[in-house]
Amino acid sequence: MTVMNDSPRRKELTRLAGQLFVQEGFDRTTVRMLAQEMGIKSGSLFHHFRDKQEILAAVIEEGTQNALTQARQALASCSPEPQARLHALAKAHLDTLLTDRNSHVVALYEWRRLDDEARDHLIHLRDAYETLWNEVIEDAIDAGLVKGELALVSRFVLGALNWTVRWYDPDGPRDSDELAKELVAMITQENPA
Amino acid sequence: MTVMNDSPRRKELTRLAGQLFVQEGFDRTTVRMLAQEMGIKSGSLFHHFRDKQEILAAVIEEGTQNALTQARQALASCSPEPQARLHALAKAHLDTLLTDRNSHVVALYEWRRLDDEARDHLIHLRDAYETLWNEVIEDAIDAGLVKGELALVSRFVLGALNWTVRWYDPDGPRDSDELAKELVAMITQENPA
DNA sequence: CAGTCACACTAGCGCTTGCTTGGTTGAACC
DNA sequence: GGTTCAACCAAGCAAGCGCTAGTGTGACTG
What we know:
The structure is a homodimer.
Chain A: H1 8-24, H2 31-38, H3 45-48, H4 52-76, H5 82-99, H6 101-110, H7 116-142, H8 150-163, H9 176-187
Chain A binds a DNA duplex through helix 3.
């Protein structure tokens, strides 16, 4: 029970915890299971994390942080047309599912297990991510490319995207580029007014 | 530990269990909490349900069954145009969130806690529901109303819809009819080829 | 070479968990 | 008016839980 930092050891432990949380769920994953997976004894866990909840927060933060970074980079390096920006964001989202899948699944299912402090912190990251989407969708609506009201469209789109966690297989026959293209095609008008 | 039937008492207990599962999550809801909420002692619970998992299965089955019934009725009593059928299904989905919200939230979050037997049974109900959507979406694609590939479009649409559980407030300013209209508008082409 | 530090260990405390057991109740039925 | 039966209770077991306390280590650092 020393302190908490972000040592490389802690990073690795967080990655392993993510795997287990996906397989078993947070509540069903015991500190003894975690320790065994990590090759240490259960007591040693609390040298790296204050308590079990902090492990959960670390897992979720990792993926959310990366998703935000990747989304920003994608927007920074794509052409400024609304359709291209929609596509870039959707592709970035699917790509993070490849690299941080466990983290996102955990974020989706175990969000409510976070204590207030951790949730407050993470909710800001999530808001920042959704704001990116809102801006891009708003531009698309203004350009007549997408029909509907901003608040609703972005919720529908984020829903469709977040749901991909449940069925998208990064090793499957379709890559993220194709899927992003399909999603954008579905919600955009072919002959904008 | 007598047997399991579907007495009215059991129905009521299932409803209460749904509430608690939403508030606390399945794993964090103890049989003692359930019993207290139901006004009985924890041991008496096992007169109505074989074990804790069976309570979960009962909660989920209730909502899924109703969703299927309502969706079928909605399709049976609407005009045959693809757009009208899309709208009818979407509205039916949102309406079940009004009557069976707890059940659907639990189905969404706690699906993996089901044992194999219960999951096998429920997966058939879920498949039947998704088949309804697939048929309606396929017609819409064939009519040139919606762009894209059936498997992907239906996953995106079901994702957007299932996600509504997380934000749709039936007591809010918009009723299910408006929301359904918005969703259909978003994915349909204004000037079909 | 003494001191510090990150990391790990052993051992177990105090509590909660799902579920069982054996028995009681009160209404319904013939 | 004895029988049946769903519904409930009191009591508790065995297992498992998160977490703590106290104690080595071996590798760096002054």
